[in-house]
Amino acid sequence: MSDHGNLTNPAPDAARLDRRRGASSIFDASRPGRRGVLLPPLDVPGADPEALFGALHRTEVEGEVEASEVDAVRHFTRLSQKNLSIDANLYPLGSCTMKHNPRINEEIARLAGFADVHPYTPGHLSQGALELMARLEAALIALTGFARVTLQPSAGANGELAGCLMIRAAHVKAGAPRKYVLVPDSAHGTNPASAHFAGYQVKELASTPRGTLDPAELEKMMTDEVAAVMITVPNTLGVFEENILEVTRIVHAKGGYVYLDGANFNAFVGKIRPADMGVDVMHMNLHKTFSTPHGGGGPGAGPVGVGAALVPFLPVPTIEPEGTGFRLDFDRPDSIGRMRTFYGNFGVLVRALTYILSYGQEIGEVAENAVLNANYLRKKLAPFYHLKYDAPSYHEVVFDDTLQAAKGVHNIDVAKRLMDYGFHPPTMSFPLIVHGALMIEPTESEPIEELDAFADAMIAIAREAEESPELVTSAPHVTPVGRVDEALLAREASKPGNFAPVLRAPVRRS
Amino acid sequence: MRYIPSSPAEQAALLREVGVASVDDLFATVPREVFRKDPPPLAPPMSEIELRRELGAMAAKNAAATCFASFLGAGLYAHHSPAFVSQLLLRGEFLTSYTPYQPEVSQGTLTAIWEFQSHVALLTGMDVANASVYEGASALVEAVLMAERLTKKRTRIVVSKTIHPEYLTTLRTYLANLGLEIVEVPAGEDGVTNPAALAAAVDDETIAVAVQSPNVFGLVEDWSVAAEAAHAKGALAIGVVNEMFSLALLKPPGAAGIDIACGEAASFGLPASFGGPLVGFLACRDGFKRQIPGRLAGRLETPEGPVFALTLSTREQHIRREKATSNICTNQGLFALAATMTLTALGKHGLRETALLCLSKSEYLKAGIGKLGNGKFAVAFPGATFNEFALRCGPPVDEVLSALEKAQILGGVPFARLAPGSGEHEDLLLVATTERIRREDLDRFLDVLKGF
Lengths: 510, 452
Known about the structure:
Number of helices of chain B: 14
Strand content of chain A: 5-15%
CATH topology of the largest domain in chain B: Aspartate Aminotransferase, domain 2
Number of strands of chain A: 11
Distance between the termini of chain B: 59 Å
Shape of chain B: globular
Mean pLDDT of chain B: 95
Largest sheet of chain B: 7 strands, mixed
CATH class of the largest domain in chain B: Alpha Beta
Mean pLDDT of chain A: 93
CATH topology of the largest domain in chain A: Aspartate Aminotransferase, domain 2
CATH superfamily of the largest domain in chain B: Type I PLP-dependent aspartate aminotransferase-like (Major domain)
Number of domains of chain A: 3
Oligomer: heterodimer
CATH architecture of the largest domain in chain A: 3-Layer(aba) Sandwich
Structural class of chain B: alpha/beta
Number of strands of chain B: 15
Order of helices and strands of chain B: HHEHHHEHEHEHEHEEEEEHHEEHEEHEH
Radius of gyration of chain B: 25 Å
Strand content of chain B: 5-15%
Radius of gyration of chain A: 26 Å
CATH superfamily of the largest domain in chain A: Type I PLP-dependent aspartate aminotransferase-like (Major domain)
Helix content of chain A: 25-40%
């Protein structure tokens, strides 16, 4: 508990100032004449850019930084110290699956034979890279039951779009693209956005009072104008769709496809093969289930598995066996095309395969412990936080601020106060069907004492909300900066000229 | 068991606390017919010792550029990365943190994003840049979709065919169902976009005109050609850059009337990593910022100093759902940070010096090819280039590459590889130089060509 301390008193200003030490940005610290890289001497005659480019020649990138290596190392090290991370603490951001990122994965991805290989290296000199991709595809097929998996999409949302484009291509081939995609009201925001960019109109499916899909409602909405239904299992409430077999049957009966958002694959990896439930397409966020680092916002990778009916439409290239090795196959006439340059976020694929091999056939323990830990937190916190949907939880549990709101304390306040206890807040922006949501996902990476420390912090905050709500509503108190006025920033940033030229929003604080 | 901290006894204790007899009871709402009792058909778990052996063997089957003099480019240029960059990227506070939605505990990531945006804005001469998109081709897609929203109800996109073919294939994939027409304007005989042909392709229905510089043949294009053609009909001009070091020596798109700049910033020290992860960028004029997709970090001055936070998020999918500017969520955060670190170390002087090294080596090679005298090779186009040019080969390109490979040289990218099956430019080899290339590599390259 000592790490999280008794933080009822704000830290002295000096402590906060110390944590803010260093320049606010490297541009503010730039000093003329400093340099951070020594380059080899010019060993050929120097070209004259003025003569070569004439009027198109640029003599200087005005405003660029001048800094030494020491300046750079210190600046970025100090910046890092202003972040919370999984390495230091439980990071219960629901739906984002902030699990431990094993360092062997980083080491393997940095091997020169992976990291220093250009994508246009001739095939006979890049067999190991193709083999890695083929083995990852095979492993993902073993875990999902699909016919093929494309590794190309750059992230989950990119995989969703690829999936929607394949569904559309299949309908077009069968006669007509159809018009609608059905998305439950509990879905991730990317689902409707991806369907929209595939040219579909989105219709919302209302959840039942249990927070799950309603087969009767689906039966009504599922017409032969509906191309696909995009579902999430377990859904964003952490609840398993008990009627999943009924749902997929209804969709298939009308000739539609079932798209599964695999953001929550970590709740059932190794325990259920999605293809067995009647799912036709699913993306997998390798940065969630398969532990590749989130890196402060990316990169991810969003491979997409498909059933046999959609295989002809996979993006090019696919990887095919040839002799004792592999080749890239571009000759796929029904392919939707490309989601990006090259073959995917290969470095992320290396990390994911390393992770899968490290668990091998025991990977189901990931799902078991993720679900166990979430249920433990649910049990401990249920007396203190309101649970709108009380169906059994899987890998995450969604509380809300109903009990605290009576004292004027909202989910955002609980979130900010948690920071004072050293924890990153839970997810609050969705599911949209829970007002004041606190979506908690501990993952399998947390030992019992860390779960207890987090629960104790949440319980202490619930007590604070009762006894001294202003302490919570004015939080955080000991973070590198106090509560940021994001509304003010957005107002200022949207004014003409206020982002130019180095994105400097103006001086003022309410 | 591998990365699960709880011991079996602790797991049993947790189960008791939760009030279930076995872990499978927690999966009780899964239909029994799909719930697997058997483990998945994978190998037994591997230790780190085995992982190093197994994956190390796979890595060893690839030709790392460190073992060859590499002239591979064609949209991805493996420049030097300062040693501290890969080491600082391993700091857990960067590596294992999430998207900085909570600014109070994410000032490190937010400050770095703001710096990345600032570098991109300075380099491209634009007002606003976002926190990154996936890579260059999807950056072009986002630029086009953004232009579509800004011009409203127009339906045509005019693109120069000198844009990287994989970018154009990607654009066709994304636009296939959105009711937008893509008009491709072929290059002139000189390999550069023809101004008259481009202007003639633009009409009142045109959303945007997109041109890449240096283009796919490495040739420098004049941005103002695209800007004038677009603006004459009320369309927007999009500038694509995939070799960012060129902007140290060439007039930036923002100074030549381009409205949206986009492309690939992997040149700033990212490992080639078989083509990903890379780091796409998107930048625009101030007036268009409400339509830029992806995350944006803003800076707010306060009495205690500047504070950074994500802003203008009502553009994004987690708020606007199907009405969002893009479906993008996860971006390339860590690699935008890597590029930012590299740019910080290079600084104003290192940028220009690196660019001059690249240019000078390329010019040396071009001059040497001009003097070969065997009549079998020529620089394909006469125009100015930065660090890459198209080599026209008399002998089959594959034979040329094999000969170079025997001399420990990865000699370049056959144009045919960029557009498989198109049958275009099958005699062209794209040859790129970076500061990692030495004079002796260049001389060895020329010696091999002389041998034909």
